[in-house]
Amino acid sequence: MEKRININQVEPQAYKAMYGLESYLTKADISKTLKNLIKIRASQINNCAYCIDMHTKEALKHGETNQPIFLVSAWKEAIKFFTEEEQTVLAMTEEITLIHQNGLSKDTYQKATRIFTENQIAQIIMVIVTINAWNRIAVSTHKEIE
Q1: Alpha-carbon distance 84 to 34, whole Å?
Q2: Which of 64, 65, 107, 142 is the most buried (most CB within 10 A)?
Q3: Which fold has domain 31-140?
Q4: Looking at the predicted structure, is the pLDDT value of residue 57 above 90?
Q5: Domain spans of the chain?
């Protein structure tokens, strides 16, 4: 891959703003497991190898087992390996990441309201939005896996 701009070097304030979102998300009231599933699934959809590598390693470090990580791209066919919370978060991740298709559906949103508080739904959406921004930065700049 061709070497491209390093935004962190040329516009460090932009990265500082992104890290501000990350800092906010560390205090979010949703589990690390849910955050990692969101980050992995959105990164898969966006074909962001850098973020897939980073977040699968993070998930393993935080105690996630291999099987859910391996199956997350096909979670609908491997539904028994995912809790109702995880299934809802994965559906939200796909619908928001692929917002150009239909956006967050009424059914998925209503299911989320039965499982999560309003604050948790807002936090889930912010995790999805943030990882999508990181994916776009990494993919457009050809960020290399370390």
Answers
A1: 11
A2: 64
A3: AhpD-like (1.20.1290)
A4: yes
A5: 31-140
